[in-house]
Design a protein that fits this description.
The protein has 194 residues and is of the alpha+beta class. It has helices spanning 2-24, 71-76, 82-94, 111-119, 184-193, and strands spanning 50-62, 100-102, 128-140, 145-160, 166-176. A five-stranded antiparallel β-sheet has the order 1-3-4-5-2, covered by helices on one side.
Length: 194
């Protein structure tokens, strides 16, 4: 029995020394864990420090308060001019500077199809309540700064219930934005995908 007690004591001592050694070691992630650095021109992110943390991220942002009694949302959106934003997007489409796309089919709309879309009784520019952004995200780990490149957006409009209050949103037009400054890294990525 004494032999077993001695063996257990020796094992306990060895294990505690080993765990103390591990606690003192710094955790090092393998090189493949850190994304490649890239150039990002639209912000002050350094050429050598910018890490693309999202090739594409898609998310919705509420831009019109659906509940007038919600003071917090009203406060968050008090500087958003939905009407001006919608007008700028539609003017760009009608002037040919931007192309509208069908959100579901990913096919371009003609100017006449955009006019038909606007004639839809469910749609009115003042009902636009959400924007879905399509972006790339960059992070400068050295300077602890973040930058985004907006690739496109989709305007979603409110669907009213029988009382006229918003009960949900419907996808509207999708518009891709022009981004003339594309980094070498992104050009290489797009060539690899072809």
């Amino acid at each position: 029995m004494r032999n077993f007690g001695g063996i257990f004591s020796l094992l306990a001592i060895l294990m505690s020394c080993n765990s103390q050694q591990k606690e003192n070691q710094e955790t090092v992630l393998p090189d493949y864990y850190v994304p490649k650095r890239t150039t990002y021109y639209e912000t002050n992110l350094s050429d050598t420090n910018a890490i693309r943390i999202s090739d594409t991220i898609i998310y919705d942002v509420t831009i019109k308060n659906p509940e007038p009694q919600d003071d917090w949302t009203a406060s968050c959106l008090k500087y958003v001019d939905v009407k001006a934003f919608a007008n700028v997007i539609f003017q760009a489409i009608y002037s040919g500077r931007a192309t509208a796309y069908d959100y579901y089919k990913e096919t371009p709309f003609s100017i006449e199809q955009v006019r038909q879309f606007e004639r839809n009784p469910d749609f009115r520019r003042e009902r636009i309540g959400k924007v879905q952004f399509i972006e790339k995200w960059y992070f400068d780990e050295k300077n602890f700064a973040m930058g985004k490149k907006v690739l496109g957006l989709m305007l979603a409009y409110e669907i009213p219930d029988t009382n006229g209050k918003p009960k949900g949103y419907k996808a509207g037009l999708k518009v891709l934005l022009r981004n003339p400054a594309v980094s070498k890294f992104e050009k290489q990525d797009s060539l690899k995908k072809k």
